[in-house]
């Protein structure tokens, strides 16, 4: 026993330094732990980190189809370098010639329409120009052309549109800021980047509306969920189990079914309006296809996400705290406000965070019951992605959304402290 | 301590009954009064009704029948927060989101005391429990014993005249518990407050209280000072519940000169003090404390009855020896002898003769 | 590595074998994946040509898929992965153009690859203008048009402009939540001639003019995004007039007996048809071409109209349209292409919208938000 107290490093029983053999023993444990978590790690990496990474990339990559724009138009990009659109002059003859050369290759590779679509995101009309010009330009014999500008203008006079050329020049790099520009409601003109007219700034409006409605929905779930969770935590087990099933029941029903059910209930010829009229009121209420409908339906759908964390926190608060407060002279109200309520804040924090983040990304319900003024930014993202095929803009909007949520999370952490959140 | 009449009692239970389900009574016809400044312990096994009594006094349970009075006024319809009773809970119930000082200031704040007055009182209360330096900590940063002190200080900081404690030491280890027992009684007596203390630990009850009310089956079995309770239990439940006890079954043969002669079921005869037996032929349970059993025959009265005993087991416990004997057909008869230089150490298998003073042997209800 | 090599070898063998057999036998794959929209529409295709085709080709296995809504996205992904699992895909004309532009669809020569009309008319002539893309094999003509509640409106609307008259025709209107169609109708009803509509829409003033017209009924509109919504809204009495695909309205009227009438005025035609993915193995491509040739012949297209009220894309099929297979009603009057219904029509202007859709969609959204 005494030999380990001699000078020098501590030695293990076999004579190796103690630190070394401890490290070896720990390493084996670490490897085993890593192996156990490897499936999850790989899963998260493949199904979460990589898609998000690729989304971030998509929002700045300047591609048409699968290839970068400058790779499709190498000659044009080189020729336009010196050109300044603000002079009001069209690009040089060389640039027009380069366009014919690059266009013919692009046509061969079936890339010219994709290129058109890419530029069309910024300047309407270019898609049509590129498509229509395709065959005619491809038939040109570059060697014989003496006046490329005239030749192109002959194919379509829109080749003389200064704005078109300015758009090509602005998007001649491998990376572009134009998706973010669009996502922030800005546009590129020949004079430079400008904000759109205030009433054309849809993404700003949608973003603010999404945040505002999500906040309102979070507040509503809290206002309704808090008493329910309290009841659940306070009732005897048998009764509370039954109530819990009722709370969870919506969880087990398809989202679409629940949303459609709200549609039937809330529509103008629906059950609630029928009762309203039967009560003697004359005007039917607009409860759906507007923001109110979204708030009602989403509050109901997201309610369990508020109740469950609240319940799990409330369950751990022994009734003796309230009794203690009362024995110390607090009225029921004071006891609740000063003693019970503060102890449920971790549950409120968790529930609010959960509901808010889920609400911000909600898509189906606002689509079905939102009408014109109740849609969320996610509906727009989906529309850009699936219908218009503008993945870059969809990715930019998604990235901004992600940044906003992370920012809110950060603020929340600073204000409340994320350690104070208890999910169960 | 003299029994106080209920009219000048500080706390009084008058014919109090409590039922939760309308079928069984948890508290049956409870009458109890205690004077100002008394430290009373309600002792009993779990389910005996002692905690229910405490909760009725605190106002968290309502009496099904009967009246509870505080300082002469009925309090049945007064909500808990207006009763002005301090209370220490089993798990302290310190508010986890407040610091120690905030916890202590809470009752003062709801009473709308000024800031300086509050601070002075909080400081005094913390000093009283020797926790002056801990005002800024959170309850979770304190040890069990420290939390206990804070809970006590919080119950006392608004200077209630009555303090209720519901098994406050249950969660502490033995050494700390003994220390806190002393501390609590010291503070209670120093401040002169009336205390009702609930526990199921008889040692706690005996060491701390002025009087102990032994609860069983919804009734008070005996209400007496600790020494009386220990030495003169009024019935076999109390005798068995308080301290270690040897019991023997038998029948009263004769009562003479204030003593009873009991014939044990095994055939031997012994002398006892009749407690709740009155006539020959009654069945009785005889109780003798282990430390009152004499193994040195020379120290007994020459006429005293003795019993033959066989030593079964000898346990060295430091300050005492604990010896298990076979007596009158029973194998659980225990005696305790002091570890003195001249004390005999009995060996298993040894046959000895044991006896006792008739006053130490109580003939109780069977 | 080894696996790849082995697969390459197998593919090479298959291709070689396919090529060898093609000479004598016209070797075709014995399984085929047909992608369409599901529901009543796909059902009409199965009844009218898939089942008869399988009957003619013993041992052929047909797999059906209902992914047409995501056809472009999925074909792009398949092409990138180099593993195309679809053989024939039913798409709207706009998608066919997109796929063709990107080289994802096979180019078709109608006169050699498709069947001539029974009277010998060449396929290219029989389909006429409806061949909007070199890869597109037209199949049906459908339209987006209006239906109205016959019992809730005192007077039956006769003009598309009646949707802007909320006094004579009270109640809400169901319109699609996109500019296509709505902008054209707004301008037509504001007095713009159909041939000037798109020129007008290219100007800022023209767009504002359309929005101003739509503004007059904005508060009375329920916006839909799925075609099934309008029949339901009409059935519930939520709206009294609404736009949707004519086939949906047909089934609400003829199959469910709802009190709904058709307003054909200025219906917007759209096309649906087949494409064959580019780059299929020879045997599968041969099978796909064989199927498509059969499925789009004059009789087959006429047969399809027995099951659904969409007009056959061939001129020669129109006289052959008969009765509904189950209801026994004459189908011709329910066809969008019927002369009585097709007095005022316009065709979805794919090319124009391809250029202006991004921009107008954003403006439309901004208008909705105001």
UniProtKB/TrEMBL annotation, chain A:
InterPro entries on file: MetI-like, MetI-like_sf
* Keyword tags: Cell membrane, Membrane, Transmembrane, Transmembrane helix, Transport
**Single biological process term from Gene Ontology:** transmembrane transport
- Source organism phylogeny: Bacteria, Pseudomonadati, Pseudomonadota, Alphaproteobacteria, Rhodobacterales
Entry keyword Nuclease: no
Parts of the chain that traverse the membrane: 31-52, 211-233, 239-257, 292-311, 348-370, 391-412
Topology within the bilayer = Multi-pass membrane protein
Q: What is this protein called?
A: Putative membrane protein
From TrEMBL, chain B:
Question: What cellular-component terms does GO give this entry?
Answer: ATP-binding cassette (ABC) transporter complex
- InterPro entries, A to Z: AAA+_ATPase, ABC_SmlMolc_Importer, ABC_transporter-like_ATP-bd, ABC_transporter-like_CS, Mo/tungstate-bd_C_term_dom, P-loop_NTPase, PotA-like, Transp-assoc_OB_typ2
- The record places domain ABC transporter at 11-242
Q: What is its EC number?
A: 7.6.2.11
Q: Does the keyword Lyase apply?
A: no
Q: Which reaction does it catalyse?
A: ATP + H2O + polyamine-[polyamine-binding protein]Side 1 = ADP + phosphate + polyamineSide 2 + [polyamine-binding protein]Side 1
Q: Which UniProt keywords apply?
A: ATP-binding, Cell membrane, Hydrolase, Membrane, Nucleotide-binding, Translocase, Transport
Q: Which domain of life is it from?
A: Bacteria
Please provide, alphabetically and separated by semicolons, the GO molecular function terms listed in this UniProt record. ABC-type polyamine transporter activity; ATP binding; ATP hydrolysis activity
UniProt key word Protein transport? no
Q: Name one Pfam family in it.
A: TOBE_2
This chain's function reads:
Part of the ABC transporter complex PotABCD involved in spermidine/putrescine import. Responsible for energy coupling to the transport system.
| Assembly notes | The complex is composed of two ATP-binding proteins (PotA), two transmembrane proteins (PotB and PotC) and a solute-binding protein (PotD).
| Family the entry assigns | Belongs to the ABC transporter superfamily. Spermidine/putrescine importer (TC 3.A.1.11.1) family.
Entry's NCBIfam families?
A: potA (TIGR01187)
Its protein name is: Spermidine/putrescine import ATP-binding protein PotA
Encoding gene (name): potA5
UniProtKB/TrEMBL annotation, chain C:
* Region forming the signal peptide: 1-22
Q: Which UniProt keywords apply?
A: Signal
SUPFAM superfamilies associated with the record: Periplasmic binding protein-like II
> What is a single Pfam family found in this protein's UniProt entry?
SBP_bac_8
InterPro entries from the UniProt entry? SBP
Query: What PANTHER family does the database record attribute to this sequence?
Result: ABC TRANSPORTER SUBSTRATE-BINDING PROTEIN, SPERMIDINE/PUTRESCINE-BINDING PERIPLASMIC PROTEIN
Q: What is this protein called?
A: Putative secreted protein
State the organism of origin.
Answer: Donghicola eburneus
- List the taxonomic lineage: Bacteria, Pseudomonadati, Pseudomonadota, Alphaproteobacteria, Rhodobacterales
